[in-house]
């Protein structure tokens, strides 16, 4: 057949085995191989059924994303699928792993489907700004009904084999060896005289306009700003408006229109970037990480508890060092309460929770960290305290034990000096809540050993995080860029914009929340502490815009105190608070500030271009090796809308010349100290290129 599809005979049955690492994507050779296998089986009178199976870790996990945007070599997937529809002999899909996208569509075009118990199914196309393009939106409703189809096709989630079987998407859950199970299934099928059957010939389920309308409303809210989910919903409706054959032709047209659109380009770039950031320029991929068998966590506040849980969730023993027995008791209670919440929700069994709790060894004695291969420090964000802790860690841990600080902005190089073993020191900045948020901002110090970098990148993946690498600077990547957005937000409030209007601009852009709702969520006291830590480097205007300090002084800490920028009821929903208006008006009067109408597009550009400009500085200084790290960090760290690709990709799409022109206008209005354009931005704009080339 082809180098990726092997055709073999097993008595009266033929098998097409696909072997196209890493995920058996339907690349050109797979499509050609499948077409050849179907033809051969059809023409061979001795063959009574054809089985399609995959080698490696998964059945087909989708079309080959690497082929997107390039001319697609024939046969295209819909052509192969049409051959399956017209085949006279039964075709059986034998599946394992993640049956996604085009892989799911190939399976649904087979006449019968069996899968191992752990197999997952889904249409993640919407996460790439696409929708199924090979019949998925038309076959799924004919097999599984409307509700399941709408959920699968528009949300991009996955279902397990049990659910798939319950909804008629697979015929059998195969225990034991899949190849043998497939042959046994084929034998039973033929013995029962069952032949080819295609979902194409089934009727659409009864239409349900109310269900579509409800889905439309939900998607518009949950997937705000994204075009693909609503288009995917439209594609399902094609089945009510035209024949199956016409519907799949129109579905393919819609898919191609989406592929050519900006959101799919952005999401596909982000998909590749989230994998590219695992490859560190200049670090040989063969460099062996240090073995991490036991993790130490010192400092058991909110972050330390979450970090201990993240390590235990990955099955790693944790030595959790706290201040004293009371502190340890509080920490373990809090950890137990969080896991009990998961048990109550059914996402964790009590047995697993008990296993994880047993992995955590509390201690009030830092010398117990001698048993750890990696120690993550999460004590209070105070340089003097951290310096003392690192000096102690350098003394009590074994040479070669990695010492990582969870600090969100303090100087890793200074901590490295304090430790006496700078080559073993790095940063591992988790995001709150540490056992939930995927992003992990690893920080390489000036003297961090290369194998330490390799180790913390591998460790991050091992505990289910999305690790990116940053150099040392104030705030690393995420907080350094976020601080510029906060600055502009406070300045805009001084100039006349109100907090709710500012939040609304970012929410309509696609952020989960704006800077003021975020401040209330994180706690204005936390923000005040961070401002205090940066007081020495703040400008007079930044110090004057002391709304956060004023809020804290008035006992308005945000959600935790019931009021901050917004007022919160029992339901914790933000409501307008006239007290905030009074505070802002008093501030303007006190400083003699004339307030003005601020338009939404100025708000958006000031908040977002401030981040883009800072990102360009981070890139130019080599803090981030590539724009990939910045976009992956900002999307996964602060919810920069994924469908834009992240701040740097988004700026590229606007054109750096246009971005620079706006920044030059802001520079003229507000001064160099805030809006001096990053040299890299000026250079790239001058060359007519983007951050990505
Ligand atoms: N095409 C090409 N390469 C892919 C790929 C794909 N669909 N999916 C993954 N890879 C590469 C990935 O880039 C990485 O390579 C390696 O595989 C391991 O990936 C017609 C048109 C399957 C759950 O969206 O969700 O079908 O960067 O690190 O964590 O309607 O990969 O290391 O060189 O993610 O084990 C729909 C996307 C496509 C599936 C495995 N399918 N992939 O996760 O490994 S659109 C998807 C995933 C479509 C049809 C439409 C995950 C995974 P490298 P990984 P993993």
Task: Please give the structural blueprint.
Elements: E1 5-10, E2 13-18, H1 28-43, E3 49-54, H2 77-86, E4 91-95, E5 98-100, H3 102-109, E6 112-115, E7 120-122, H4 136-144, H5 146-155, E8 158-160, H6 161-166, E9 172-173, H7 178-191, H8 209-222, H9 228-241, H10 244-260, H11 262-276, E10 295-298, H12 302-313, E11 318-321, H13 325-345, H14 350-359, E12 360-363, E13 374-377, H15 383-396, E14 402-405, H16 412-419, E15 425-430, E16 439-444, H17 450-462, E17 466-470, H18 478-495, H19 499-509, H20 515-522, H21 524-533, H22 540-544, H23 547-553, E18 567-568, E19 574-575, H24 578-591, H25 600-620, H26 627-638, H27 647-654, H28 656-670, H29 672-675, H30 679-686
Parallel strand pairs: 2-3, 3-4, 4-6, 5-7, 6-9, 10-11, 10-13, 11-12, 13-14, 14-15, 16-17
Antiparallel strand pairs: 1-2, 7-8, 15-16, 18-19
Bound molecules: (2S,3S)-3-hydroxy-2-methylbutanoyl-COA.
Q: What do we call the CATH homologous superfamily of the largest domain?
A: 2-enoyl-CoA Hydratase, Chain A, domain 1
Secondary-structure class: alpha/beta
Strand content range:
5-15%
Give the tally of β-strands: 19
Helical run tally: 30
For the terminal residues, how far apart are their CA atoms?
39 Å
Main sheet: which strands, in order across? Answer: 12-11-10-13-14-15-16-17
Q: Helical amount among residues, as a percent range?
A: 40-55%
Estimate the mean pLDDT confidence: 96
Number of domains: 4
**Alpha carbon gyration radius:** 28 Å
Q: Which ligands does the model contain, each kind named once?
A: (2S,3S)-3-hydroxy-2-methylbutanoyl-COA
Query: What is the second-level CATH architecture of the largest domain?
Result: Alpha-Beta Complex
Biggest sheet layout: 8 strands, mixed
The shape is globular
CATH level 3 topology of the largest domain: 2-enoyl-CoA Hydratase, Chain A, domain 1
Q: Which stretches of 5+ consecutive residues score pLDDT under 50?
A: none
């Amino acid at each position: 057949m082809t180098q990726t599809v092997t055709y073999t005979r097993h008595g009266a049955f033929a098998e097409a085995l696909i072997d196209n690492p890493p995920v058996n994507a339907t690349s050109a050779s797979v499509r050609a191989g499948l077409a050849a296998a179907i033809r051969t089986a059809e023409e061979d009178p001795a063959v009574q059924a054809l089985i399609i199976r995959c080698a490696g870790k998964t059945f087909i996990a989708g079309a080959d994303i690497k082929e997107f945007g390039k001319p697609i070599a024939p046969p295209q997937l819909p052509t192969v699928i049409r051959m399956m529809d017209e085949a006279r002999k039964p075709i059986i899909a034998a599946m394992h792993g993640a049956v996604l996208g085009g892989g799911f569509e190939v399976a649904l075009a087979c006449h019968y489907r069996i899968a191992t118990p752990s197999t997952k199914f889904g249409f993640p196309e919407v996460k790439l700004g696409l929708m199924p393009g090979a019949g998925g939106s038309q076959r799924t409703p004919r097999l599984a009904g409307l509700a399941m189809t709408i959920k699968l096709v528009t949300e991009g989630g996955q279902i397990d084999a049990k659910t798939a079987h319950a909804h008629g998407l697979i015929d059998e859950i195969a225990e034991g060896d899949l190849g043998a199970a497939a042959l046994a299934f084929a034998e039973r099928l033929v013995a029962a005289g069952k032949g080819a059957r295609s979902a194409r010939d089934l009727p659409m389920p009864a239409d349900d306009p109310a269900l579509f309308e409800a889905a439309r409303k939900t998607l518009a809210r949950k997937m705000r700003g994204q075009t693909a989910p609503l288009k995917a919903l439209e594609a399902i409706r094609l089945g009510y408006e035209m024949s199956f054959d016409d519907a799949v032709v129109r579905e393919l047209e819609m898919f191609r229109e989406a592929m050519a659109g900006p959101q799919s380009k952005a999401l596909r770039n982000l998909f590749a970037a989230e994998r590219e950031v695992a490859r560190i320029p200049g670090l040989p991929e063969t460099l062996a990480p240090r073995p991490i068998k036991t993790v130490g966590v010192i400092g058991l506040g909110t972050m330390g508890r979450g970090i201990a849980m993240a390590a235990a969730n990955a099955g790693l023993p944790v030595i959790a060092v706290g201040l004293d027995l009371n502190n340890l008791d509080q920490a373990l209670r809090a950890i137990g309460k969080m896991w009990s919440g998961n048990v109550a929700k059914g996402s964790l069994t009590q047995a697993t929770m008990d296993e994880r709790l047993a992995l955590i060894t509390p201690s009030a004695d830092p010398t117990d960290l001698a048993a750890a291969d990696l120690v993550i420090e999460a004590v209070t964000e105070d340089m003097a305290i951290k310096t003392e802790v690192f000096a102690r860690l350098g003394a009590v841990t074994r040479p070669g034990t990695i010492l990582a600080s969870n600090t969100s902005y303090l100087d890793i190089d200074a901590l490295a000096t304090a430790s006496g073993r700078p080559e073993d020191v790095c940063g591992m900045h988790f995001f709150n809540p540490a056992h939930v948020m995927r992003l992990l901002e690893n920080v390489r110090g000036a003297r961090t050993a290369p194998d330490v970098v390799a180790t913390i990148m591998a460790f991050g993946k091992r505990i289910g995080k999305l690790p990116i690498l940053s150099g040392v600077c104030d705030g690393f990547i995420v907080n350094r860029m976020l601080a510029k957005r906060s600055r502009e937000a406070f300045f805009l409030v001084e100039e006349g914009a109100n907090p709710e209007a500012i939040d609304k601009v970012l929410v309509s852009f696609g952020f989960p929340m704006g800077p003021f709702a975020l401040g209330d969520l994180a706690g204005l006291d936390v923000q005040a502490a961070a401002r205090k830590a940066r007081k020495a480097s703040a400008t007079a205007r930044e110090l004057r815009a002391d709304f956060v300090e004023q809020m804290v002084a008035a006992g308005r800490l945000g959600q935790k105190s019931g009021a901050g920028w917004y007022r919160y009821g029992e339901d914790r929903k933000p409501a307008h608070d006239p007290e905030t208006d009074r505070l802002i008006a008093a501030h303007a009067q006190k400083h003699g500030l004339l307030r003005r109408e601020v338009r939404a597009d100025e708000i958006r550009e000031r908040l977002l271009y401030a981040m883009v400009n800072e990102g360009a500085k981070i890139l130019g200084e080599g803090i981030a090796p590539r724009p990939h790290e910045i976009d992956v960090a900002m999307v996964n760290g602060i919810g920069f809308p994924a469908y834009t690709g992240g701040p740097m990709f988004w700026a590229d799409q606007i054109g750096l010349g246009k971005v620079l022109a706006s920044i030059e206008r802001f520079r003229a209005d507000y001064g160099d100290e805030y809006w001096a354009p990053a040299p890299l931005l000026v250079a790239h704009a001058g060359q007519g290129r983007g951050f990505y080339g």
